[in-house]
Amino acid sequence: MQQISTMLMKLFQRARLEKPGQVDPRGAEFTLGLLIAMYDRSGTGYVRTRSAAAALISLSGDTLLAKYRAFFQFYAVPDGKETLITRSALRSLLTDLNQIPAIVGEGCTLSCVEIAIHDCFHGVLNAAIVEEKFLSWLRSEPAVLLWLPTCYRLSVTEMVSHQARCR
Q1: What is the average per-residue pLDDT within 15-22?
Q2: CA torsion angle for 84, 46, 107, 149 (degrees, to 10)?
Q3: Are 83 and 77 in contact (CB under 8 A)?
């Protein structure tokens, strides 16, 4: 928890320098509280760094493709010359990401995670998949993660400005 807290403090301090007056001074504290609520419901004082990273990536203002690539980097494992994501790593990623909508009562069941894994690995004979297959599956907007592109589209539309006047 201390490592995550320190990282968040640095992250928000840098953000305040880049965007003066636009970042709440309590941003790190609020974000840590959110991460604890999502990933430490039993009060152990422990949150996996990878889970926190997945949440921060998904809530970032980056593009969907950049988020998807970052998920792959955090959860995939090197296998010789290539990096692959296994079924268990995908299960871990989906479980971590589903804590985000769950915090507002919109989580899904374990069975929908298993269905998503089955869909991702449909037609795959190997125990793991390469990044391109993973990205292709995510671009198909699987139901288990539909909230992610939806939130992204909503955030992008907030920045749209039209020069037309309404009557």
Answers
A1: 91
A2: -50
A3: yes
Q: Which of 28, 31, 39, 29 is nearest to 103 (CA)?
A: 39
CA–CA distance, 123 with 157 (Å, rounded to integer): 36
A 10 A CB-CB count for 164 gives 5
- Residue 162: its pLDDT value, please? 75
**How would you list the strands of the sheet with 128-130, edge to edge?**
77-79, 82-86, 128-130
> What is the average pLDDT score of the chain?
91
Per-residue confidence (pLDDT) for residue 154, from 0 to 100: 87
Q: Rounded CA gap, 165 and 145, in Å? A: 36
Residue whose C-alpha is closest to residue 74's, from 90, 95, 98: 90
Does pLDDT of 83 surpass 80?
A: yes
| Rounded distance between C-alpha atoms, residue 70 and residue 96, angstroms | 14
Task: Report how far residue 157's alpha carbon sits from residue 136's, in angstroms, rounded to the nearest whole number.
Answer: 24
- Phi then psi dihedrals of residue 27, to 5 deg: -55, -45
Q: Please name which of 97, 88, 79, 90 lies closest in space to residue 135, comparing C-alpha atoms.
A: 90
